[in-house]
Amino acid sequence: MGGSHTLAEGITPMQFGHFDDEAREYVITTPHTPYPWINYLGSQEFFGLISHTAGGYSFYRDAKMRRLTRYRYNNIPVDDGGRYFSINDGGDVWSPSFRPYKKDLDRFETRHGMGYTRITGERGGLEASVLFFVPVDINAEIHQVTLTNLSDAPKSVDLFSFVEFCLWNAEDDQTNYQRNLSIGEVEVEDGAIYHKTEYRERRNHYAMYAVNSPIAGFDTDRDSYLGYGNGFHEAAVPHAGTSEDSVASGWYPIASHHLEADLAPGESRQYTFVLGYLENADDDKWESPGVINKAPARELLARFDDNAKTDAEFARLNEYWDNLLGSYTVSSTDEKLDRMVNIWNQYQCMVTYNMSRSASYFETGMGRGMGFRDSSQDLLGFVHLVPERARERIIDIASTQFEDGSAYHQYQPLTKRGNHALGSGFNDDPLWLILGVAAYIKETGDFAILDEMVPFDNDESLAQPLMEHLKRSFNHPLEKAGPHGLPLIGRADWNDCLNLNCFSSTPGESFQTTENQAGGVAESVFIAGMFAAIGPDYVALARRRGDDAEADRAEKAIADMKQAVVDHGWDGEWFLRAYDFYGNKVGSHENAEGQIWIEPQGFCIMGGIGVDDGKAITALDSCRERLNTPHGMVLQNPAYTSYQIELGEVSTYPPGYKENGGIFCHNNPWVIIAETVVGRAEHAWEYYKQITPAYREEISEVHRLEPYVYAQMIAGKDASRHGEAKNSWLTGTASWNFVTVSQYLLGVRPDYDGLIVDPCIGAEVTDFTVRRQVRGAEYVITVKNSGGKGATLTVDGVDVEGNTVPYAPAGSTVQVVASV
Ligand code: GLC
Ligand code: GLC
Prior knowledge:
This protein is α+β, with helices and mostly antiparallel strands. It contains 20 helices and 46 strands. Strand 33 (628-629) and strand 34 (632-633) form a beta hairpin.
């Protein structure tokens, strides 16, 4: 049962920890993972990234524009810099997080949980444990430190905290030293350290780091704390055992506290540190000239002045997650499946919702805002968790659409404004909006959102009902059709790296924004597949609004598009990928490289193309033969071995990496769903396990990244590091895999009028029960599975026709039994 991985010769299974499903945690038992294994703190406005050795940083809403603490990407060693607690125990200086001192620990354990991380280290008879979390509805990160004397002699221990402030704009902070090294300012009052750089001028916010216990000293100047020329691991103050009480003036503001703890044998001490973000009204910024108004900070500190209050806030965070994760659960014979569905996949969906693609250990949080395409797809994975926030996100996204249906490719989360530098012209963008809105309405029944007035290009005077936005989305590929009646690709479609109109020969220039060939020829079979797959939702919405003429028109357009794919998008054994600037085929057996691409196979079949005439099965068999590997399906094959100017960025990557034949985990689910469309449960299940992290845990040495979340990419078969993952956490892989496993493999998906129950999962998963809350009712769905498709259902003991369980009134519980 379980692992589908054939370990390559010479590779022994290797793990760096284990799952604790009861606690919903991944437990890392060594600091020596192959890469920092991280977690996210925060669920609303205040966020932190934290590695298993306490590296990382914190920010308020926007990782670029409101960064609280500093982080150096691509540093040596990787992941230096974080929230460090140093212990001086009789001259022995160490940290429970292993870093920065890297002193051997008698025990090390990091537990990454839902919105919190607990790091515990033990050395020389002293245990230090730090619980890091961001409370619900509070703009602060809590560090609750517990020291325990495990020895049989009394101990006098010095404890030092440390965070390094970022001067708010993370990009400026890393580049603009001529200004920045002069502007740093702090205040210290009652042991609380306030970071107020730029507060004297246009900012109305500051940060604070404080602890609920008397301190013996503090530092706010980095050179004083570290000692000039020292690394974090050589920090002078912890080694000296006493603080300098330094006050930063320019240079590098930090916050460090010194606490003294006398511990009898067996005794524990607990402290709550609060790293807070505070704002004041513009006319209420100052307490007295030059002294910031600390009223909101004092209020925040009062909420954590007693450790029992901290415990209560932590309990509240756990309840928040109990609640969220209660809306979809499965209980099956496969513990890996259960832990992915019930815990980690949904958790990752929430994190991608919060971050989009902005802040991870692969994304600096400085470059990318919220993607129109990405955020629309993310909706699919979190709409059942926080429907009201999905609604808000939909309005935000749609507000960045242009009147012609196209859209800003990205917008900035703090301002919600479109990003001009990147602009528009990614011709798949419009259709994703329909998909996201349809998912929201199916989940909630909130058809009224379609009447919501939503601006175009953030201009209120151009506002139109959301339904009108969807209409323009639907029409966009029709209005921008090429010579074969297929949608023009523009700068790129889903594959940002297939740039058929760019022809870039200037080093360093962006492949996506260089548009030096305004050809009207390059067409995307993938967008055509999207149109076939997503268009029917537009038809359904129009019909439900009583607009039959519009629904009929749309249906006809979809039929025509499908025909265009059959006539011009079929290569004989698979779907073509595109036509290039010259009208030549991309993704054809006629090409020397890049003969078959994964994306159109998945989406055309999801759109029903070729399902009745065998093309779908043929295409899926081709995927199996040419794209599949034990680590997942590669994006295309054979990978490009040289730069092809007419294809763009895709051919810039070395073979086997990223879009050039890497296993791009985001699109594997489309093939898995397609396999369920044609009813091949065993293939679908096999492909699911190949890329799903819990099943890859035993090959952590090869996979290298966190075994609890999906990565964007696993190196493909042409790469020397085949099987190695990169870009974990922030990827459309999270939502698409959750859709795949919850709605297609386990087969429970909301529709407009009821819950569809249509499982299609390998026979290995014999019987299972899904509990699904939707529109206030609960559905308990017991499935007897033999690995086929086409379940017969009883609802509350009565046989029903078809596979839709009508929605029941809120408050009711519906028992469904399905046999397949
Ligand atoms: C990245 C982008 C996504 C794109 C994909 C393929 O994941 O965030 O928008 O579709 O790459 O290029
Ligand atoms: C860049 C990356 C590419 C990624 C894309 C996402 O072009 O090189 O791999 O998919 O950005 O927008």
